[in-house]
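Usage

Read records sequentially. Each one opens with the input sequence:
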Amino acid sequence: MSAPRLDAPGVVLRALELSDAEALFAAHGDERTHQYWSSPAHKSVEQTATYIQDTLALPGAHVWAITESGADALGRIGLFVEREGVGEVGIIMRPDAARRGLASKALNLVVAYGFETLDLHRIAADIDPDNAASLNLFVRNGFEREGLLRGNWKTHIGIRDTALLARLRD
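and closes with the structure output:
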């Protein structure tokens, strides 16, 4: 399913493509950026391409490249509809694009799309409790912390908890 183009001042979200693998390897191949991901940093652009292909094939996936003008992917954001009315959002940014406000703008566009276009009533985020940057991003953008799922993920850094955050449609 191809995601529609979404725009706001200073950010353009366009459908994620396999050709974005090289640009997004800067995020997925970075140990620090990938620290709280479910898998270790990617070792090659080909591994990132496979990850993109697998993500795009997921049922209910709406996935965008985060750009400034519709060109190079500076990050990736996905909205995954798990069941009727409920979605989960995930985001990753290249280190050279972090702390520029792009993630906040992208998150707000995707949340609005989920509520207005997909008629979702709940959008959740599953975040490692030690990932302060992600937690702050979501809280700043209207998500509320709902709880802690202990031992929820087996990752490359061990068994990890999940901080569950969500935003409900008004």
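Summary fields computed downstream for this record:
- The chain is about 25% helix and 35% strand.
- The longest strand covers residues 144-155.
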